[in-house]
Design brief:
There is one protein chain. The chain is an alpha+beta fold and 118 residues long. It is built from two helices and five strands. The protein has helices spanning 2-33, 88-91; strands at residues 36-57, 61-76, 81-86, 99-105, 108-114. The longest helix is centred in the N-terminal third of the chain and has 32 residues, at 2-33. It is elongated and about 70 Å long.
């Protein structure tokens, strides 16, 4: 019974890895074929996602690693909202309520040029 359960779990894990790999390659391909667009947009909100990873063994010591992913939601003139992952170097430069020109390709953030209003 154990061997059958072990084999089933192994096949499931490999299956999940292959599906995620296929999804990633598909999204990369769609982004490459999407046009680069530049539109007027307003920054609606920003958020972060922190993931934690634990490595090591009880004998060698456990090590905790974390990674932060940064996102911004933009509202375009049509009223549609787009959430894009942004580089951490630009996260602090973007302020909710800022207006400007958003450049993106598919789901890839290319940049945001703030419009100075007087």
């Amino acid at each position: 019974m154990f061997e059958m359960m072990f084999g089933l779990v192994f096949v499931l894990v490999i299956g999940v890895i292959l599906v995620r790999l296929f999804q990633g390659v598909s999204q990369w391909n769609r982004n490459n074929h999407a046009p680069v667009l530049t539109v007027d947009a307003t920054i609606v909100t920003k958020r972060t996602q922190v993931s934690h990873h634990q490595t090591g063994t009880a004998e060698s010591g456990m090590h905790m690693h974390s990674a932060t992913t940064y996102f911004a939601t933009f509202q375009v003139e049509s009223g549609d909202r787009i959430e894009l992952q942004i580089p951490n170097s630009e996260f602090g430069m973007l302020v909710e309520g800022d207006r400007g020109r958003l450049t993106f390709q598919g789901t890839r953030y290319q940049g945001f040029q703030r419009r100075m209003e007087i």
